[in-house]
Design goal:
Number of strands of chain A: 8
Protein name (chains A, B): DUF2520 domain-containing protein
Strand order of the largest sheet of chain A: 3-2-1-4-5-6-7-8
Distance between the termini of chain A: 51 Å
Number of helices of chain A: 9
Helix content of chain A: 40-55%
Oligomer: homodimer
Strand content of chain A: 5-15%
Number of domains of chain A: 2
CATH topology of the largest domain in chain A: Rossmann fold
CATH architecture of the largest domain in chain A: 3-Layer(aba) Sandwich
Radius of gyration of chain A: 22 Å
Largest interface: A-B, 99 and 99 residues
Organism (chains A, B): Mucilaginibacter psychrotolerans
Structural class of chain A: alpha/beta
CATH class of the largest domain in chain A: Alpha Beta
Largest sheet of chain A: 8 strands, mixed
């Protein structure tokens, strides 16, 4: 397919590369910053443009990969071309597009992207929604050329998915940062915790996380929990996080199975 | 070395296997449940015993790998043999042993273990503390035969390490479980989140987590955070966790660097 990319951030960068690697033709990359547009365009053999008026009509789909709150503003400028328009956001409904055009869909890659970190796009769950069945099928087909994990997800589900990702990714990373801070204060390198973090994530490849919960709260080990809270004295924020998460674990824990 | 293992749980199981693989001789495995003792003993070519009175004096070190609150009780029964005694707990001080004997140390593997999941023990950080320099060196030497990550860690540091591990491992896994629950309620499989979870952990192999924080809180995106809180209406526990972690991210966030 001939694809136009709106945006030059992390999602745009990884999607453009995935499209190109799958044999599609990335026609143009747009960014209000023409330098950024040109840089990404260069990497995927496309033309960089700095104005939406320069969009080439010789394209099949316009993929909008920009900040959530900028999506609504940009859509009217894309309508004159009469092409299929999709956005790539987890938090924005399909309606943000269908309010303007029926030729619309969502093409949401459920992953955390950094420009500087390569990843295997074939594993990225692609969440697809089309304004009608024909569009949905078309997007599914396109998604399957770049990923082995393609799901049909409606707008309500996608919002839940995005919320879940905040818990599983953003909040999780913050807990890594909290741990890093505690070690630093006591002259220990974060390297000491890296194997544990990787193993914790690795475990859920084959297990439901609820069934492999471990630690003082899962064991209802009041003594250790109290000792930990005492160690956090003067750090009310961390005490609160400790208490709240421990209470939630206790509330949700079934019979411990002996893992430690 | 000739090694006696007290316990037959997850830590005992993985340590015994690591010792055997490194060419040490596991002499005996003790468990009050002789069946459990015999099973682990069988796997590592040792004898299983169900009574502490049957400990063979032909050993060099007694490794106590049992529940934290059982350590103090069991130590007196091990003293008559006059051997080096170490425990493997992150939360228990060295003093729990040195109150009884100067021939003591700590041999703490900082990892989450399941009996049913193999792992590469060479990566497991081994945290060592001896009652004196000779013992510390001896334990370091032993640790290096089974792991490439050996650290000297005193009792105060080890407690912090254990606390940090609760944040980075136990609490993290609970957040995975929260996400799993949200997806389930909306008919989506947890499989959809697995790649994101693995990538989130993978990212910190090369980065400090504080520097790669992403998500609505890191972007100070009030609109998305409010939408998420609304979606969690009726789930006060999750709303509280969402608020508290978001506030802590906002408080600790420096300039966002554009990752999404």
């Amino acid at each position: 397919m001939r694809i136009t990319i709106i945006g030059s951030g992390n999602v745009a960068t990884h999607l453009a590369a995935a499209f190109k690697n799958a044999g599609h033709r990335v026609v143009q990359v747009y960014s209000p910053n023409i330098h950024n547009a040109a840089l990404l365009a260069y990497h995927v053999g496309a033309d960089g443009i700095g104005s939406l008026k320069d969009i080439n009509v010789e394209t099949d789909i316009i993929v909008v990969a920009i900040k959530d709150d900028a999506i609504k503003e940009i859509i009217p400028s894309l309508l004159p071309y009469g092409k299929l328009v999709v956005h790539t956001s987890g938090a924005v409904g399909l309606q943000a597009l269908t309010d303007h055009t029926a030729n619309a869909g969502v093409f949401y890659p459920l992953q955390t992207f950094s420009k500087t970190k390569e990843l295997n796009f074939g594993d990225v769950p692609m969440c697809i929604e089309g304004a009608d069945e024909t569009i949905t099928k078309q997007l599914e087909e396109l998604a399957r050329t770049i990923s082995n994990n393609v799901y049909r997800v409606n707008s309500a589900q996608r919002k839940i998915l995005h919320l879940s990702a905040v818990f599983a990714c953003n909040f999780t990373n913050h807990l890594y940062a909290v741990a890093e801070g505690l070690l630093k204060e006591h002259d220990m390198p974060f390297d000491m915790l890296r194997p544990l973090i990787l193993e914790t994530a690795d475990k859920i490849k084959a297990h439901s996380p609820a069934t492999v919960q471990t630690g003082p709260a899962a064991r209802k080990d009041e003594q250790t929990m109290q000792a930990h809270l005492n160690m956090l004295e003067g750090r009310e924020d961390l005490q609160q996080i400790y208490l709240l998460l421990s209470q939630d674990i206790i509330k949700n824990s079934n019979v411990p199975h002996g893992d430690k």
